[in-house]
């Protein structure tokens, strides 16, 4: 079994990557091989609307563009579990994750009402979101509504509803005194992190376990 995590944050070892690593560890505890891929290490673009993936002779063969994302898309095609992570920037996922999803999801959805997806197999997927906003503000600003279209598309493409984790009110800086951040209470954010982030880590770990268990439950049909 292979579990792949895609880090949609430009930071390689902060909140998003840390939670993704915990999810991978959960999957590994059930026997999966794990791999983390950092999107911001790669040179790639989003969909360029070539429509090659909609040509009848190409259907089901993924994105036709060739760049540093191509190998990653091939790895996802052969994965047993996929875990996606993104911080929330300006009320939505990062541009890097958006471009990745365009290249991953659009080729699976041909223009047919009878065939919802041409992806090769059911793929249990987890989505991890991190954000500076507190949970009540996340709900007030409608961020969950902003994310729902991505979640619906992923559920359609991979024929399994994704598992979701929101990690709110994250600690952004190692030293708040060096940044203009007077609208926040560093003390309150630190206290919240000390209390909540370990719970988010455990939730991510359990997500990894649950995704592997979905394979064993007969959802995976390569």
Radius of gyration: 18 Å
pLDDT averaged over residues? 93
Number of strand segments: 6
- Could you give a short account of the major beta sheet? 6 strands, mixed
Helix proportion: 40-55%
* Net shape: globular
Alpha-carbon distance between the termini? 12 Å
Strand content: 15-25%
The quaternary state of the protein chains shown equals single chain
| Low-confidence region ranges | 217-222
How do the helices and strands follow one another from N- to C-terminus?
EHEHEEHEHHEH
Structural class: alpha/beta
Number of helices: 6
Explain the overall architecture.
This protein is α/β, with parallel strands linked by helices. The chain is 40% helix and 15% strand. It contains six helices and six strands, in the order βαβαββαβααβα. α1 runs parallel beside α6. The termini are close together.
Keywords:
15% strand; six-stranded mixed beta sheet; 6 helices; alpha/beta; 222 residues; disordered C terminus; 6 strands
